[in-house]
Design goal:
CATH superfamily of the largest domain: Alpha/Beta hydrolase fold, catalytic domain
Number of domains: 2
CATH topology of the largest domain: Rossmann fold
Strand content: 5-15%
CATH class of the largest domain: Alpha Beta
Order of helices and strands: EEHEHEHEHHHHHEHEHH
Strand order of the largest sheet: 1-3-2-4-5-6-7
Number of strands: 7
Structural class: alpha/beta
Helix content: 40-55%
Number of helices: 11
Largest sheet: 7 strands, mixed
Shape: globular
Length: 276
C-alpha cells in the first residue's frame, strides 16, 4: 500500500506530542488538546488517511494508518514522542507503541480501548431527523439554547455527550461538523472492517512498558468506560480516570478537568515528555 502524505498541523516548540484524532475527525478536532499542550510542547496533529485534507480514492485497511504515521515520524525527524489518541486515534496510539516502542515515550488514551465495545441502542428515523436539524441549526448559530433544548437533546448527540452546554455545542459546530463532512467512505470502511473482524489487542498490550494515562466518559455508548478500564488493567503502567455524567466526547464536556488531569500526570511522569 502506497504511503499517503498526511496534512499536518504543527504548533509550539519542545518535546513532540503526536495527537491522533478519532472517527469521524481531523487534526483540527483535537484543538482542545493542542491549544493547551502547545504552550509547553510541540504538538503534531495530522489528518489521518481518508480524513480531513488527507484524502485518498483508494480503499485501505486500518493498519495502513500506521505506515503513514511511521513515515510522518521520519519526515519530521522525530526519534521519541508522546502519543495522544482519541477513540480511533487511541487504538492507533496503542498500535504505535507495539510497533515502534523505541519511538513512543508515553500514551494518553482518550475514550478508547484495546478491545473496544459499545452499547449504542438502535438508531431510528427520528434520531436522524433531529440530528440533522440540530446540526444545521447549530452550525448556523453555535450553542443556541433553544436548538439544544428542542432538537439537540433529542438527537444522536445524546449518545455522544451528556452535558448539553453551549460550550460543548460550539465544539460540535466548529470541529465535529466539518470533520464529519470530510470523512471519506474509504476511512469509514477501513474502521468498519477492523471492528467486524473483532479487533482485540488485549493479549498484546502487556508488552507496552511506557507510562499510560487512560481517560473515559462514564456514559460512553460508543466505546464503553468498562472497555477502557479493561485496557488500563492490562497495561503494565497505566492510570485510569472516569468522568461522571459524560460520554464519548467528554473532552468537550469537561475540558478544564481533563487538561488538569493530563497536566498532573505529566508532572508525575516527566520522562514521558523528555524532562527527566
Amino acid at each position: 500500500m502506497k504511503i499517503v502524505r498526511l496534512n499536518v498541523s504543527v504548533q509550539g516548540n519542545g518535546f513532540p506530542i503526536l495527537c491522533l484524532h478519532g472517527h469521524p475527525g481531523s487534526g483540527r478536532s483535537l484543538s482542545v488538546f493542542t491549544q493547551h499542550l502547545s504552550k509547553r510542547f510541540q504538538t503534531i496533529s495530522p489528518d489521518l488517511r481518508g480524513y480531513g485534507n488527507s484524502q485518498t480514492s483508494t480503499n485501505f485497511e486500518i493498519t495502513d494508518h500506521l505506515t503513514d504515521l511511521e513515515a510522518l515520524l521520519h519526515q519530521y525527524q522525530i526519534q521519541r514522542c508522546l502519543v495522544l489518541g482519541w477513540s480511533l486515534g487511541g487504538i492507533l496510539a496503542l498500535e504505535m507503541a507495539l510497533r515502534l516502542p523505541q519511538h513512543v515515550t508515553g500514551l494518553i488514551l482518550i475514550a478508547t480501548a484495546a478491545r473496544p465495545w459499545g452499547n449504542h441502542p438502535p438508531i431510528s428515523w427520528q434520531d436522524n431527523l433531529y440530528t440533522g436539524l440540530a446540526s444545521i441549526l447549530n452550525r448556523l448559530n453555535p450553542g443556541w439554547q433553544w436548538n439544544i433544548d428542542t432538537f439537540g437533546q433529542r438527537s444522536l448527540y445524546r449518545y455522544l455527550i451528556q452535558r448539553h452546554t453551549p460550550a460543548t455545542y460550539h465544539y460540535l459546530a466548529q470541529e465535529a461538523m466539518p470533520a464529519y463532512l470530510q470523512t471519506s467512505r474509504q476511512a469509514t470502511r477501513a474502521l468498519s472492517n477492523a471492528l467486524k473482524r473483532g479487533y482485540n489487542r488485549l493479549p498484546d498490550i502487556d508488552k507496552i512498558q511506557c507510562p499510560c494515562l487512560v481517560l473515559a466518559g462514564a456514559c460512553d455508548r460508543h466505546i464503553t468506560a468498562a472497555s477502557s478500564q479493561e485496557t488500563a488493567h492490562h497495561l503494565p503502567n497505566a492510570e485510569w480516570h472516569c468522568y461522571p455524567t459524560t460520554a464519548h466526547l467528554f473532552p468537550w464536556e469537561v475540558p478544564n478537568q481533563v487538561l488538569a488531569d493530563i497536566d498532573n500526570w505529566l508532572q508525575r511522569y516527566p520522562h514521558a515528555v523528555g524532562e527527566a
